[in-house]
Amino acid sequence: xxxxxxxxxxxxxxxxxxxxxxxxxxxxxxxxxxxxxxxxxxxxxxxxxxxxxxxxxxxxxxxxxxxxxxxxxxxxxxxxxxxxxxxxxxxxxxxxxxxxxxxxxxxxxxxxxxxxxxxxxxxxxxxxxxxxxxxxxxxxxxxxxxxxxxxxxxxxxxxxxxxxxxxxxxxxxxxxxxxxxxxxxxxxxxxxxxxxxxxxxxxxxxxxxxxxxxxxxxxxxxxxxxxxxxxxxxxxxxxxxxxxxxxxxxxxxxxxxxxxxxxxxxxxxxxxxxxxxxxxxxxxxxxxxxxxxxxxxxxxxxxxxxxxxx
Length: 310
Known about the structure:
By secondary structure, the protein is an alpha/beta fold. The chain is built from twelve helices and ten strands. An eight-stranded parallel sheet has the order 3-4-5-6-7-8-9-10.
């Protein structure tokens, strides 16, 4: 977390960005260094989580590349400095779990993050072996959140996750998916099994979850992680070369990334959004969406209408 009274020059120096001012300085120029990142409660426990985290699909699947490891250590360090903690991974993401484990330890930050990963295999025993391997790769004795990835064999894995939570091996368990077509099934499972967390897709142009999924989440007090906030880059391609509307500055929005993330975060049922990145300046930009004023319901629709017309 930033101390109060850091100057922008100090932040550039501490972040190792003194020579990258052109890329980073515009991001920091609008930042109020006396603030703290917005946090929201996990309904089950009232534990607070910062509203912007980090997804690791593709971005952390770098094997043993020393050059990529250096960049990713910086990503994790800057995330931590700006108050972030949630890191989401999966066995599906190649070497990502191992890279997260190795680099958080290398940065001496291994106890400063909220670690989330998934089980993604059929069968009880296979699931147990896979999850135990995730503990080893991420170098954890306890996992903060274990999720059933894309609902694969969920009826079997729910039983294991409940037992592991009772035993203290995991703090929370959840379910995930990434398509609109799965939202109805997510609702059914929330009603029947009452998971601690649900992770799904939601963005300024993909609002299917607003039809009924969010209503179910509110009723059953489920914590929410949001994936695919940028529609795998589609939103940036649509806005390339276009200016952010001037009225967005009133909500401390100074980039398209912040525009898209603040739309999501202005829905107060969202606990944390987890954009993926391997670039330090993108990490800083994403984290800044957790600071400053959030759009109200009227402004949310204004943001949506503006993007719809581009």
